């Protein structure tokens, strides 16, 4: 039996560490109560200040917590216990300061797969409006049910979708965007607040197995309501409520019809620590805001419900004092612990069996582009659609992808031929203008208009025969104004990266050159630490501004000597890249560590430079996980046991992963690769770059036959469509900042 994760100690949840435990002492039944849940147990009814010790089935004292002023304590991160154990072979909670010792239990800690009898779901009745749904451990989650316009869509039962997050999806007066759009398009919607948020009970534990299991319970309870068409539900949402869908679907609820996750992540730890470097910008701020909103009084609408007499909401808030401070939690996880694998989506999505519609932007300023590294892991379902584009976090709700979102929900949740209401189509341009600030945007035409309503199976077969991956290029350069969410051209493939992609290598050369041929002469270049980089973004815009066509930007250059630059000759023909890549660097320094950023950009014939993508790595975490890496995708383990300081003054090979992207490099343009200190190249991500241990150390990058540094990038050999002529003006590409190109004189070391 595993012990509590070390993160409990790191969070200062443990009031006192205990030695071995209490075996053989006389015990009596405790006055307090325990409620086991998924990987956790909650204690209630204890005396304030009472010292409560969790004891493993093997009799080991695991941790001691002090009951709060309400007599509560919550033990998290527990190892689930297999079903069918012998009576008495379970966890216990004891107060060992009393004589005789008070003991509650033994009890069994649940896992995600420990589902209750179907009667638990069948007995619940949830109607239109605000209410609660009960989880397997008795926790009540707040929900808000909304039916679509009956004048447009008639009486129920309705195709139904769930939006599930820790924001405010159950707020009766303010629906989330996914809910609003789905309602408008004819779906009943159910907004559900995760445990420990909104008016929901329980303790907030971000992306935890308990939240995953709750999602299973929500799906099964809602699907059994009389107003749900087919008694199957879908899920909708972007960002938090998009990410949650992947976790829920991985638990395989039988009544889940399909999911539509938009703008998601791949691993919570890697978002907070991209490349092993602390993201002190958006990720830190987002977690701090989740902590604030999950606290008692953290959301005004929740306080209003309590003031209006919602006793369930009021009683649920009492346990919030046990919430974990997750901003501090993640800050202390410098190395990635194996214990949080149950929150890594790349390891969970193979379990998903329902149809999936997923969209994402390569330059997503909030959740980043790492999601695209796990697209090949959706192996449990044959029905998936991935729509990928240059752009920003809110673009999953843009008209260039929303029409296909509606199609997907019609096919797999409503089970109808997709046919958009003329009234909705007529109202759409005004709605999109309100959201994106652009005239002239609207839904795409119905693509299955040739099928009658009774030809659903034929239409579905035609839909499922289409390629699974849709790449949209140069969004922002085709709309009514620069930066509008409208793409210039698209290409479809059966997988991502495209089947014809090849790993093409370029080598660093002298005088800022990037060449196809490996170096034949000795040489190296060096750069120094840029202390201002980590806290420097290219815009002062707030997160909510990124839905607009353009955001104010100032993409700054690194100081002289603090960056290296390598540039190809102008391409003689169009080159398309699609997939991840990496920089293969030979590094030498006297420092024990180095934070590295590699930036890929395009230099156009008019002298403008467009950002394309970047990669990050803490060099001491350079050990490659060979089981997950391939010719293009490089992934490090980031485990403490694999960390290795740089050997002083010796050459070391370091592979810096470059996030996935899809980009056309037109004939006449040049590929640029820069190596520098992380920062300056993103709008909302910032980085905590520790200063060097000695003044002005040089980070030397080799470019010799023995130490040939360069990049490996994903070139598409058989691109299926013609590429429109003409370079996108600067600025216009959505999510891709631009500036005048300034040559760099690399500092030659040898």
Characterization of the model:
The protein is globular. It contains 15 helices and 31 strands. It has 750 residues and is α+β, with helices and mostly antiparallel strands. Residues 1-23 have low confidence and may be disordered. α5 (209-223) crosses α6 (240-250). β9 and β10 (140-146) form a beta hairpin. Strands 19, 20, 21, 23, 26, 28, 29 and 31 form an eight-stranded antiparallel sheet that branches. A six-stranded mixed sheet has the order 9-10-12-11-13-14, with helices on both faces. 17% of the residues lie in helices and 26% in strands.
SSE blueprint and pairings:
Elements: H1 7-10, E1 27-29, E2 33-37, E3 40-44, E4 51-55, E5 61-66, E6 73-75, E7 91-95, E8 101-107, H2 119-122, E9 129-134, E10 140-146, H3 150-153, E11 158-165, H4 177-184, E12 188-193, H5 209-223, E13 228-235, H6 240-250, E14 256-259, H7 268-272, H8 282-294, H9 300-307, H10 311-317, H11 326-331, H12 345-348, E15 356-361, E16 384-389, H13 399-414, H14 422-436, H15 456-464, E17 469-473, E18 489-493, E19 501-508, E20 514-515, E21 524-528, E22 563-567, E23 575-588, E24 595-603, E25 608-618, E26 652-665, E27 670-676, E28 698-702, E29 710-716, E30 738-740, E31 747-748
Helix pairs in contact: 5-6
